[in-house]
Amino acid sequence: MIYPLLPLFLSSVLGASASFIGVIEGAAETVAALLKLASGWWSDRVRKRKPLVVLGYGVASFVRPFTAMAQSATQVLAIRLADRVGKGIRTSPRDALLADSVDPSMRGKSFGFHAAADNAGAVLGPLAAFALLRWMHLSLRGVFWLAAIPGIIAFIVLVAAVRDVEHVPESHNDGKAEGLMAASSLGGRFWAYLTVVLLFTLGNSTDAFLLLRANQLGVAVALAPILWALLNFIKAALGTWGGGLSDRLGRKPLIISGWLVYAAVYFGFARATAAWHAWALFAAYGLFYAMTEGTEKAFVADLVPRLRRGAAYGWYNLAIGLGVLPASLIFSAIWDRSSSQAAFLFGASLALLAAVGMTLVRPVLRNSDQLRNAE
Questions:
Q1: Measured at the alpha carbon of residue 198, what is the angle toward residues 293 and 188, in degrees to the nearest 5?
Q2: Helix (H, G, I), strand (E, B), or coil: what is residue 253?
């Protein structure tokens, strides 16, 4: 409810410049990326996930509504940083807790369901905000206050209903939690996977560029929120299916296929000439997310032992978080100095290279010995 309205609030109500809005988002995501690594490692060390998850969601749920009281862009920066601190604290332990809580045979489906629920919120939240603004005639500040309600409900459910999973120390590694973030503790397959993920991320710029390209193709600015809602609806509708498909067919085939879909979509945006092309490509783009969003995270849990999952998700989230900024900078530079078509062709090319690199990553074999090593 808050996020899609925040740029408008900053510019129209508080008078912030576009550059300062960029500073807010860049600083917030950098802080979150660094904390994801630290919190994941710490959850391995203390062998408890839930306390950090509760702390992270609690911080975010508490500070977000205070956006309604902000009188300056600097205050919003502080609130946004605190919100991302909460996200950084909770994300890696939450991913590890999710992997701990399900049978390995349903791991992809569980991460796909989580992604689908997240994307459903990305559809329903903006629609709820639109209804409050349009038909109940609330101000932006009023919407921000009401956004506290779902946050409080989610926090209560987390505290009351979510259970931590007991971590039994490995006999050969008991008392050596300090090394859980070391490269050698995660294995070569994990680092090979992380390398190709980073390569893909460098070609995966912010989705805002897709909206700009859609506008170039003739999609009216007023229809941009509907186009964005279409993307998130498809992600939500197909996310559980995509993750479950990886349980049956394997993670590598789904990730490679998803990245090939991404390359095809970006190639399509480079060659598109009409507004309806943008609508069709956005729909196909949702399929890419459905195939990879949960599957990529499930593959992390497949590759590393249970007691190292927190650190593994920390490194995974850090790689993506730090790769997004240069990806957008490179993409925008190509767009400005050459053309939007060239920028999309660049993104498609890196996706193809990453898909080829993914074929070289050795998966975990699904037999009992391998599962005992992984769990």
A1: 100
A2: helix
Listing DSSP states for 81-106 in one string gives HHHHHHHHHHHHHHHHHHHHTS-GGG
342-370 pLDDT tens trace: 999 999 999 999 999 999 988 765 543 34
Q: How many residues does the chain have?
A: 375
Query: Is the pTM value of this prediction over 0.85?
Result: no
Report d(CA 64, CA 5) in Å as an integer: 13
Q: Please, is 121 exposed, middle or buried when counting C-beta atoms within 10 Å of its C-beta (0-12, 13-18, 19+)? A: middle
φ, ψ dihedrals at 207, nearest 5°: -70, -10
Q: What would the pLDDT profile of 64-114 be if each residue is shown by its tens digit?
A: 889 889 898 888 888 888 988 999 999 999 999 999 999 999 999 999 999
CA angle at 132 for the pair 128 and 134, rounded to the nearest 5°: 110
DSSP code of residue 363: P
Report the run of H or E that residue 130 belongs to, with start and end: helix 107-134
pLDDT, averaged across the chain: 86
Q: Which domains does the chain have, with CATH numbers?
A: 3-162+184-363 (1.20.1250.20)
Contacts of 97 (CB under 8 A, 6+ apart): 49, 50, 53, 162, 164, 165
User: What distances in angstroms separate CA 199 from CA 111, 160, 258, 320, one per listed residue?
Assistant: 22, 40, 15, 10
Question: Which residue from 132, 133, 100 is spatially nearest to 12, judged by alpha carbons?
Answer: 133
Half-sphere exposure of 88 (CA within 13 A, CB side): 21
Could you give the C-alpha distances from 307 to 51, 91, 95, 141, 171, in angstroms and in order? 16, 16, 13, 44, 12
Give CA–CA dist 37/89, Å, rounded.
9
